[in-house]
Amino acid sequence: xxVNTMFVNTANTMKLLPLVAVLLTASSPRASAQTATAVxxxxxxxxxxxxxxxxxSSCPPADDVLRRLHNSRVDSRVDANTxxxxxxxxxxxxxxxxxxxxxxxFSTSTFTDRQSDxxxxxxxxSVYTPQMIVNGEREVLGSxxxxxxxxxRQVAPASxxxxxxxxxxxxxxxxxxxxxxxxxxxxxxxxxxxxxTDDSATTQVRHGENAGHSLTHVSxxxxxxxxxxxxxxxxxxxxxxxxxxxxxxxxxxxSPARHLILxxxxxxxxxxxxxxxxxx
Length: 280
Hints:
Layout: E1 7-9, H1 10-27, H2 29-40, E2 44-52, H3 60-69, E3 72-74, E4 85-93, H4 109-121, E5 131-134, E6 138-141, H5 145-153, E7 162-171, E8 174-182, E9 191-204, E10 214-226, E11 240-245, E12 258-265, E13 272-279
Parallel strand pairs: 2-4
Antiparallel strand pairs: 1-3, 2-5, 3-4, 5-6, 7-8, 8-11, 9-10, 9-12, 12-13
Helix pairs in contact: 1-2
């Protein structure tokens, strides 16, 4: 089992903070003020993309690593201006394993093509699974949890760019999203992507390399699209609106919990400049 004491589950952190605040308040007013300031600092979100497949026998350990790291916080050795880093996982299922006995129901050519683009950026001779891409900056073996955490801690300092989800609304089988970019921007507009995810899912695999196994995934990308950006030089932080086609039935009583993940990515280097996530 993969264990690393340097990351702390967000839910557990929220339970412990009140007790820590009480103890520090009792010890000194200065410590209390410092604690209050630290609590107010939001974590910096880091995007970790897992390229995986239900037809790959090497992928379940990587699925498990992502499950343990998704929404968890790690210490930051790079960015001292935030309260650590928080991982936003994104499981992207590729198609090239489907011909070997099991068709992965979550796989699409969109994710296969995206992984191929990363392979060119990192000068790899071929694509492979399981592979993790950390903030668009580094690629590591997806089942190597220590390597993933090391790459997360080594992400480049935070950009001055922030992306915000202002509102979401489901109507006519689409998700209407109002969003904006805040802060200074690089010399050119970054690419803005929107991913719609299922928070979790389990598959009973009947054929292929994982035949007979029950596989559990988290933050499963069901769609990933690049958004059109209406940029007004006079009002650079003006809200944008997008209408995202829902790739699933949003009315079912048993529908899983879902998230919208928006991220800004530098088009040439591939570095992820900002990330925002919201349940819908």
